[in-house]
Amino acid sequence: MNIKKMSFFLRLLCLFLTSAFLHAQDCTEFTFPNNGAGNIEVNTTLTWTEVLGYNGYILSIGTTAQGTDILDRKPIGTNPFYTPPLGLPDDTTIYATLSLVPYDGPPIICDKLVFTTVEVTTPPTCSILITPDNNAGSVTIITDIEWAYVPTATGYYLSIGTTPNGNELVNNLDIKNELRYNPPEDLPQNSNIYVKIEPYNDIGIATSCTEEIFTTSFAVYVCDPYISETTGELIYRAPIINLLNIVGICSDELPYTISSNDNADGFRWYLTNSGSEETLLSETQSVAISAPGKYRFEAYNNITTDAGDIECISSKLIDVVASEEATITAINVNNLPLGKTILISVTGGGQYEYSLTSRDGPFQDSPMFVEMPTRNYIAYVRDKNGCGTTERLVDRDISKKDFPSFFTPNGDGINDYWQYVPPIENFESVIDVIHIYNQFGSLIKQISPNSMGWDGSFNTKEMPQSDYWYKATFINQQPIMGHFSLIR
């Protein structure tokens, strides 16, 4: 292998190792439980270090190495924690695998974890209804029954009736390890419905569990749309909700007011969290929220029927997400035969899109631009939720004009060192090294682009006033050669 090919190979190897090292630094790792830990609670929350700049995490959990019988490669968003909704089996070795999801590539496996859960020695406690809420009214007759997970429970017995302690609708049915039941037939309309949930495990059944109650509305078809006999138009009895499912707000806008322009007789806003009761926040068209999260909006019309007045309700779950203007941390430029490859790196809590054209776009989701013609660019990063656009000059190629034509090392503090001048402030140099030669071609100094530069001496001896030559070598650009004058 000749010297030129070997040099090229070594550069590629260096770039590969550097990329692999930087990539390894981005990976996340479990912080709880510790690897090899024992006696971990069955309702434990797995946590890991947060890594920004990625599309989220993928988690697998199983009872065998590489197993996914508990959780099969589930995308779980950007939160650095996860609580299995049905808990974990007791006295069992648990295996977990955590991966990062890039915006423009396949998932990256980062960490694996093994731990053992505690042995359960007591029966579980009682559960509570989630849907419908206890004492809820005007519940549709086709509702599902949902209840909260109980730590250490491995199954639930369910009874449903229309009288206290009644079970004529469902009689002590073993639901297994599920948190939802879909009645095969409609519930009785305009009735009190009594529900008892009794969790169990291998040790025993929960005792003294309280019966809960809700009231159904009239048959759901009363609120169905119908065609007007006079106009032929489709008439909706329940309001039409036009709010978006996702509302993006800027972090500096809290508290934030969300308003509906929908037409209805009444409105309700709820804060809703998985595994807990909803909290009523407002009964007007607007609600002031103090934090991102999940909210439910109801709009209803009052309908008079022969059996009484009912509410025809439309409901929508709204995810309020916080965003912020991006911070551009770096712009990497690689000069390739077909053009430049430009990669924009950012930090921030928003969802971003990228452009090299203008503040008005067009924008793309990927931060990488390929085969770009050689010219100067400005990078624009826009938050998709309207929280601002950040811009920064893309670092241009270094040229001969970035190297001074002379310097005067006389100790007056002005031009005492010869060094290349970065084209812009905070420019990330791609220069590898600069060699300085005398007029006869002898190497007299080798300097780093990050050093003070050359002070005009060789082996502590001042060099004479004359012209000198330099050669700057790069990682991804052809060398630049030129000359300058030492003036005394």
Automatic annotation (TrEMBL):
Signal sequence bounds: 1-24
Keywords: Signal
Pfam families to which the protein is assigned, alphabetical: CHU_C
InterPro entries: T9SS_type_B
Protein name: Gliding motility-associated-like protein
Organism: Maribacter spongiicola
